[in-house]
Design goal:
By secondary structure, this protein is of the alpha+beta class. It has 7 helices and 17 strands.
Length: 302
């Protein structure tokens, strides 16, 4: 059996893993090696893995419970609900609804009560140049904040909102109405401890509307600062895709963004599986939002 080689690609995150055939079940030792590399590098790229949808699902299942994507049903592969198609290729004669997926910094499924544990994205077709994905290390983002700001955000919760997916409102109206109903705004802690590494991290995103108990006006400058800080170039790994790359990221301690840095007339077709995350958060009822603005209006006149 060939041995596994793990080669770091950047200081912040990212490693290339060779010596595995992901079409076949991994041994317990191989799984342990992959998991350890994942904890060290957060994003693993496995080159030259020509997987079918069932093989991608089977690989993901060895890393965690496979997500069925019930919160975003329209983007699934019709034959495999576990596989989301992130593609700019027309679907049923219409422009693909996922052609602009991931265009702001985010972690997957944070607008649900189970943000993904990780995701596995496979490149099936790509433009000749570009179509890169960037990943940012949220341990580093947390650790480089000043102690006073770390204390301030320690007990904050942030409201994650599916409508802040960039371009969401331009998608199919009936589908977005359904997805809004299925995914009301939900609050998750801003500082979390990774369940496997025990390290603290910043759980932030550009899909956050406000902090719980703070108005949008109050939240906006802090959110902007935290997002800018968290995605500074020195915390980022940029993946330049090759055909048949399989990239697996830890969705709990990274953010990612899909860049529009390519000729949109060229096909880009990706398959994604996610690992189901732990239950987290609480739904924000519209009334409590009104309460907050009522409170701030009172504060403004008193
Ligand atoms: C995703 C995503 C990034 C990309 O599939 O979750 O954000 O580059 N995709 O396609
Ligand atoms: Mn994503």
């Amino acid at each position: 059996m060939t041995s596994i080689t793990v080669t770091a690609q950047a200081y912040a995150a990212g490693a290339r893993v060779t010596g595995l055939d992901l079409r076949k079940p991994l041994t317990p030792e191989q799984i342990a090696t992959v998991q350890a590399a994942w904890h060290d590098h957060l994003v693993l790229a496995f080159p030259d893995q020509d997987l079918t949808a069932p093989q991608l699902i089977a690989f993901t299942a060895q890393m965690g419970e496979v997500e069925r994507n019930d919160n975003v049903p329209y983007y699934r592969d019709p034959d495999y609900p576990e596989v989301l198609l992130v593609s700019n290729k027309p679907r049923n004669g219409k422009p693909s609804e996922t052609r602009n997926t991931g265009r702001n910094w985010h972690a997957d499924l944070t607008y649900t009560d189970r943000p993904a544990k990780g995701s596995v994205l496979m490149c099936k077709e790509k433009p000749p140049i570009g179509g890169d994905t960037m990943f940012a290390n949220m341990y580093m983002a947390y650790e480089t904040l000043s102690p006073v700001l770390r204390d301030f955000i320690e007990t904050l919760d942030a409201v994650h909102d599916i409508t802040l997916i960039k371009g969401f409102e331009r998608r199919d109206p009936a589908q977005i109405a359904d997805m809004k109903r299925a995914n009301p705004p939900i609050a998750h802690p801003v500082v979390r401890t990774h369940p496997e590494t025990g390290r603290k991290l910043l759980f932030i995103s550009e899909r956050i509307r406000n902090f719980v108990g703070m108005t949008e006006e109050e939240s906006r400058p802090l959110l902007r600062f935290l997002n800018d800080h968290a995605t500074a170039p020195e915390f980022v790994y940029r993946h330049q895709w090759a055909l048949n790359d399989v990239v697996m990221w830890d969705n709990r301690c990274t953010l990612h963004i899909a860049l529009k840095d390519f000729d949109q007339s060229q096909p880009r077709h990706m398959m994604r599986c996610s690992m189901r995350g732990e239950k987290s958060g609480y739904v924000i009822q519209p009334e409590s939002k009104d309460d907050a603005s009522l409170k701030s209006a009172l504060a403004a006149v008193s």
